[in-house]
From TrEMBL:
Name of the molecule in the record: Actin-binding IPP-like
Matching Pfam families: Kelch_1
Phylogenetic lineage: Eukaryota, Metazoa, Cnidaria, Anthozoa, Octocorallia
Keyword Repeat on entry: yes
Alphabetical UniProt keywords: Kelch repeat, Repeat
Length: 222
């Protein structure tokens, strides 16, 4: 990767690997990298967008061309997050700009700024009367945000149909949790499921035949 990261979160989208956030040199980061698997040699590239806040110990998943960023340690506010952010990974529109230059003394300037994530500028003296055309792909990086019942980090997540299930983690006081929360992507609602037998954080989770299997993790009480 371009950055050495710890406590980052990753997922696969259209066959490419996406790595988000984490902490770098003792500081949180909001940077996103993508590994294009169809490139040879393989090469990590920086994504145009950034996470809404700097996050570590969060989780991410993809559903219908959208990246869902789940809870984690919010370095902007220096506290655990209870937010689920919804970021579009697919282009929303293609904006075209044209300007006709009328004399050698004129200068054309085009700017596009979407949030703080994407900018393009073209400035040049006009030599002849000719149209200048350029295009910019625009992404909607912060489309929606909902909140979990309480802040969490170090949790595990699985996707089941159109639902994201958040398992365990630690709360705002860094105490281990045994909570299981199901977030409905289509409605934005969340609900509590039966709790884990043991409190844990830093575990892995998979879903197999409609059964959530939680592996490993840490239980500070044992």
């Amino acid at each position: 990767m371009n950055l050495a990261r710890a406590e980052s979160a990753s997922c696969v989208y259209n066959g490419d690997v996406i790595v988000t956030g984490g902490w770098v040199d003792q500081n949180g980061t909001d940077l996103i990298e993508i590994l294009k698997m169809n490139q040879h040699p393989l090469r990590w590239t920086m994504f145009d967008g950034k996470l809404p806040p700097k996050l570590s110990a969060h989780d991410v998943t993809v559903y219908q061309d959208k990246l869902y960023i789940i809870a984690g340690d919010n370095w902007n506010e220096n506290k655990p997050s209870d937010a689920i952010y919804e970021l579009s990974l697919a282009p929303l529109m293609l904006s075209s700009f044209s300007q006709e230059c009328l004399s050698q003394e004129e200068t054309t300037e085009h700017k596009l700024l979407t949030g703080s994530y994407l900018s393009w500028e073209d400035r040049q003296p006009a030599r002849v009367k000719m149209p200048l055309i350029d295009s910019v792909v625009v992404y909607d990086f912060i489309k929606n945000q909902i909140n979990l019942p309480e802040p969490a980090l170090g949790m595990s997540t699985v996707t089941w149909g159109n639902m994201i299930i958040v398992v365990g983690g630690v709360d705002k006081n860094y105490q281990a949790l045994n909570d299981v929360i199901m977030y409905h992507i289509e409605t934005g609602r969340s609900e509590s499921l039966p709790s884990l037998k043991n409190k844990m954080h830093g575990a892995s989770a998979v879903i197999l035949h409609d059964v959530i299997v939680v592996l490993g993790g840490r239980n500070d009480e044992e």
